[in-house]
Hints:
2 domains; 13 helices; alpha/beta; 17% strand; D-Maltodextrin-Binding Protein, domain 2; 6-stranded mixed beta sheet; 5-stranded mixed beta sheet
Amino acid sequence: xxxxxxxxxxxxxxxxxxxxxxxxxxxxxxxxxxxxxxxxxxxxxxxxxxxxxxxxxxxxxxxxxxxxxxxxxxxxxxxxxxxxxxxxxxxxxxxxxxxxxxxxxxxxxxxxxxxxxxxxxxxxxxxxxxxxxxxxxxxxxxxxxxxxxxxxxxxxxxxxxxxxxxxxxxxxxxxxxxxxxxxxxxxxxxxxxxxxxxxxxxxxxxxxxxxxxxxxxxxxxxxxxxxxxxxxxxxxxxxxxxxxxxxxxxxxxxxxxxxxxxxxxxxxxxxxxxxxxxxxxxxxxxxxxxxxxxxxxxxxxxxxxxxxxxxxxxxxxxxxxxxxxxxxxxxxxxxxxxxxxxxxxxxxxxxxxxxx
Length: 356
């Protein structure tokens, strides 16, 4: 009797084992079949593409160089980053550059191409210090995104505002436009016989006064009317492209003093930057560097473009030789820089050391 029970138990164990093996094989077969079916139907086990829509604010109107460059950046980004759509808002539609810079820092706007506001950080005005650079070689040395001392400083300071700097877009060397001829135009120590608008910054006012101008600090929004009514007789703090766009018919003379380097800056919110993967960040950095190189080429081409337009329209362009420009630079370095260096913070000493 005991032997019979043992045999029955053994047979039961063998059957159970075979059943389990059969069940495992069947499950494996079913799983494989399901995977094959999924593959044939186009399903994927990878995570779905993240759909993102970014707002891109620019300060210039449609059809301008800034607008063209903004669209070039948008196209490259959308082709390279899956699921990304960038909507461009030109001509300050989302607010002027000061408002937009704050909005980018808060993450409300993702991208901007604009001038640099020093509203939050006064030391950012170092990027337009008078006669810091006066030719393209110097400009590339100080402002390039790879190792330019000005660029790296701006990058560091913007990060504190929640902004990631991507590239610089050089625009022009500063000049002075006027509605009448200047006196003693080639002498930095003498009166120029004209009252000009200057940006509302202490450094800009001291600089223009030092080289012989009567100065009136004004916001850009009031400048056209002031020119038109004769309250002022000229404008400083910009260059030929800006003057042609904003005061074309009022401009009679443009004096190419090469006072400063005017740049616009391409930047994005830290929130948007941090939403990218490491590979995507590397791609964006590469796109931005290529974009910056093209921006330098465009700026150098445009240097004569707007001068030619002014000449065709009857305005006179006054050029100065390198020796005269150096005379102005030396005078400003000696007389003006000691008075304005404190406005720029500790970076100013680093800049002076690099110039020595």
